[in-house]
Design goal:
Length: 302
């Protein structure tokens, strides 16, 4: 068969100081999806090196990566994912797959995230570690953090998200053409919210996840994580659903103003003063007006 008679899948691996594992990940992917084990699609592997200071680039090339895209300095996982998705689109990929360089997601699960897209059942597929695929006892703080961000992402999008920090995901080219990662730090929550906001078909599949045995993670689940991630998530939410966001705040102001009015009628006075009720009413209506205006601007952009 000619190369492009079959769907073309580009697997990109963000890597930062992963000289110990990158070659093994690349070799295993090639073993499972190329040559005699080729599936019903053509698959190539590329690496996005995010300013590594060790031998990651050398090992990736030695292992046979089709391309190694190099960041001159460490930009972050979000930036590396952005580069990988853009490069896959430029290479003519029908599907782009992101997998980490640390063997926590087994390369054999790549087909699990690709399959719903090839079957035209989804545009964006996220591998979930938390629906039966977790192969070790995750530290309590990380487990709680993952569950919180999954809950928050679900609340924002209305999707049933069980894993908002997964490292294995796949995207159809129709999303590669329009995706937007606005911050260089995290990527998964941004991509879930962005694909939902752009009306893509988003789904999760169960994938395995093993304990990391070597190297260091791009992102550590500490205090820095929520400080960086939460503002980005809310910024994206406001961008896609400005009316819902501003309407909620505006209505809350009006409800407090109404409570103040009722208190005045019953007691003849208010704890905060009459001016506070007036200010809350004016601010509430202004916020709702801003929401309507922002919604119109957002609608025209879409």
């Amino acid at each position: 068969m000619e190369r492009f008679n079959l769907p073309y899948v580009v697997v990109f691996i963000p890597a930062y100081n992963e000289e110990e594992t990158i070659a093994g990940v690349i070799s295993l992917i090639k073993e499972k999806y190329q040559g005699v084990n080729q599936r019903d699609y053509i698959l190539d592997v590329i690496v996005v090196d995010d300013g590594s200071k060790d031998g990651t680039i050398k090992e990736a090339k030695k292992a046979g990566a089709l391309k190694v895209v190099i960041h001159p300095y460490n930009k972050g996982l979000g930036a590396s994912t952005r580069t990988g998705m853009q490069t896959a689109l430029e290479m003519g990929a029908d599907v782009a797959v992101k997998i980490d360089a640390d063997f926590q997601n087994p390369p054999g699960d790549i087909d699990k995230v690709v399959r719903p897209i090839l079957d035209d059942a989804a545009d964006c597929v996220f591998g979930s570690r938390l629906i039966g695929g977790l192969q070790y006892k995750m530290p309590l703080y990380r487990n709680w953090g993952n569950k919180f961000f999954a809950w928050l992402t679900s609340m924002i999008t209305g999707l049933k998200v069980t894993d908002a920090t997964t490292g294995l995901m796949a995207f159809h080219k129709r999303y590669l053409k329009v995706f937007n990662i606005i911050r260089d730090y995290n990527e998964t929550q941004q991509l879930i919210i962005d694909s939902w906001g752009k009306h893509m078909r988003v789904t999760e599949v169960s994938t395995k996840f093993f304990k990391r045995e070597g190297g260091k993670s791009f992102i550590k689940m500490g205090l820095k994580y929520p400080i960086n991630v939460l503002p980005t998530m809310f910024r994206m939410y406001i961008h896609y659903k400005p009316l819902r966001f501003f309407m909620t705040i505006g209505l809350m102001c009006l409800i407090f103003a109404l409570i103040g009015v009722i208190y005045i009628l019953i007691n003849g006075e208010t704890f905060f003063g009459d001016a506070t009720v007036t200010i809350l009413s004016i601010v509430g209506f202004q916020i709702i007006f801003f929401g309507l205006l922002a919604d119109q601007i957002s609608f025209k952009r879409k």
